[in-house]
Amino acid sequence: MASAASVFLLNVTGQIESAEFPEFDELYCKYCFVYGHDWAPTSGVEEGISQIASKNRNIKQEIVWNFPIEITFKSTNPYGWPQIVISVYGPDTFGNDVVRGYGAVHLPFTPGRHKKTIPLFVPESSSKLQKFTSWFTGRRPEFTDPKVVAQGDGREVTRVRSQGFLTLSFNVVTKDLKKLGYSNSPSEPPNPLMMSRP
Amino acid sequence: MAEVHIIGQIIGASGFPQHILFCKWGVHTGGAWKLLSGVVEGQTQVDNPQNEEMAFWSHPIDIHFATKGLQGWPKLHLQVWHQDSFGRNELYSYGFLHIPSTPGTHSLLTPTWRPLGTWQEQISQMFVGGGPQLKSPSLIYGGADRYRLQTTSMGQVHLELTIIPRNFERYGVEC
């Protein structure tokens, strides 16, 4: 069993907890993962689609999905560390599904429990004419592939509007990262006098 | 050789006079550093946020370096630009930070500044926008020529970066 490790494992469980969208209701979300060439999922679900959730006006204004995420990746190299890409959809005034937000975040790097709140944004029309036609036809601009929000190149041509936040929680377990020579946490507990503000 | 992974996001910016913002970024390293994979410069999306306090870019960064020494540890330099309603871009501010050397995930907030210019330039900037820009970006992350400048403070840029060094312990380097 104790052979020299050449791969490390990243096991993530968690959930898409909820979203804050002041303007919209009856939303559902999709998730998928974007990762580099050296990475491969070994078990778990790579994409999912949630129920349609609406707000409870009496209790709180959040939209709760409580949607599970369970996945394990293996890799030889942290380059291309997986990102979870979320897209949120909901009906417009005519009942057609339109996108209400895209967002992405890297899976946490250190073992333990992590909570992340990420901003969600939608692409905007680039010209006044397109703005008018999208208003007139009721079709708003979308990304043909939501995975572009996890990529850095080619972003300079996109104009977006951020509107709303999504909260995720993760439990992370790693295996053999140390054995491969990687350190993902400080070697000693950080100096309490040097703690940065949260 | 020891290796360093820098993975994370340029999250966004807050505290700027206008909120339609984007950012040009780059990573500068010394001669002993070799880029193995990833891109070291780029430009974010333009965000016109509904909540006007903060613009969000969620711009991913994933860089893999190999190095022979600690000299020239990577620095990230930033330029924040404002886009007005006519689609014209105007430089808002400069900023830089050293990539943290401690392994783990860091929430970072970097303050930014812009050159002031003469009083004539300041008045024309009040009416028509624009403003002085640096001729060479090395002034952003270098300290040698800064004393020639007069600057004023601008907003701040939010980042979350994770540092994963590899094989530093093999050379006795504690980080």
From TrEMBL, chain A:
<dbReference type="InterPro" id="IPR010796">
    <property type="entry name" value="C2_B9-type_dom"/>
</dbReference>
<keyword id="KW-0966">Cell projection</keyword>
<comment type="function">
    <text>Component of the tectonic-like complex, a complex localized at the transition zone of primary cilia and acting as a barrier that prevents diffusion of transmembrane proteins between the cilia and plasma membranes. Required for ciliogenesis and sonic hedgehog/SHH signaling.</text>
</comment>
<dbReference type="GO" id="GO:0060271">
    <property type="term" value="P:cilium assembly"/>
</dbReference>
<dbReference type="GO" id="GO:0036038">
    <property type="term" value="C:MKS complex"/>
</dbReference>
<keyword id="KW-0206">Cytoskeleton</keyword>
<protein>
    <recommendedName>
        <fullName>B9 domain-containing protein 1</fullName>
    </recommendedName>
</protein>
<dbReference type="Pfam" id="PF07162">
    <property type="entry name" value="B9-C2"/>
</dbReference>
<comment type="similarity">
    <text>Belongs to the B9D family.</text>
</comment>
<keyword id="KW-0963">Cytoplasm</keyword>
<keyword id="KW-0970">Cilium biogenesis/degradation</keyword>
<comment type="subunit">
    <text>Part of the tectonic-like complex (also named B9 complex).</text>
</comment>
UniProtKB/TrEMBL annotation, chain B:
<comment type="function">
    <text>Component of the tectonic-like complex, a complex localized at the transition zone of primary cilia and acting as a barrier that prevents diffusion of transmembrane proteins between the cilia and plasma membranes.</text>
</comment>
<comment type="similarity">
    <text>Belongs to the B9D family.</text>
</comment>
<dbReference type="GO" id="GO:0036038">
    <property type="term" value="C:MKS complex"/>
</dbReference>
<keyword id="KW-0966">Cell projection</keyword>
<dbReference type="Pfam" id="PF07162">
    <property type="entry name" value="B9-C2"/>
</dbReference>
<dbReference type="InterPro" id="IPR010796">
    <property type="entry name" value="C2_B9-type_dom"/>
</dbReference>
<keyword id="KW-0963">Cytoplasm</keyword>
<protein>
    <recommendedName>
        <fullName>B9 domain-containing protein 2</fullName>
    </recommendedName>
</protein>
<keyword id="KW-0970">Cilium biogenesis/degradation</keyword>
<keyword id="KW-0206">Cytoskeleton</keyword>
<dbReference type="GO" id="GO:0060271">
    <property type="term" value="P:cilium assembly"/>
</dbReference>
